[in-house]
Amino acid sequence: QVQLVESGGGLVQAGGSLRLSCAASGRTFSTYRVGWFRQAPGKEREFVAAIRWSGANTYYADSVKGRFTISRDNAKNTVYLQMNSLKPEDTAVYYCAQQATVTWSHWGQGTQVTVSS
Asked: Measured in Å, how far apart are the chain's first and last C-alpha atoms?
């Protein structure tokens, strides 16, 4: 059973940067994907980025392309989300989850990111 724990959120000014971490405990598989999602108050949860544990593929939402970078460190069983040029509209609770085939599961507890203008 995999457990995912997010960290690294905080308060930052617009234009600033943050790096989120998603640490996985338990066995991971190279074909599985780990994804970052976010949910702002009053809005639905949305996809942000994803990567396979193998690192072979990365995926981004159009709203974050060119600003966010997803990466992984297999030795540490950790996936990172480097967020640059942050905007107030990036404010949300950020979650990570794992996908084996179709369904996203093993959601973490989330980490708050607040971008002030």
From this structure: 40
Return the closest-CA partner of residue 38 out of 83, 89, 95, 88.
Answer: 95
A 10 A CB-CB count for 95 gives 22
Please give the single-letter amino acid code of residue 29. F
Tens-place pLDDT, residues 56-95: 899 999 999 999 999 999 889 999 999 999 999 999 999 9
Nearest to 47 by CA among 58, 57, 56, 38: 38
What phi and psi, each to the nearest 5 degrees, are found at residue 90? -85, -5
Spatial neighbors of 93 by CB under 8 A, at least 6 apart, are 9, 38, 39, 40, 110, 111, 112, 113
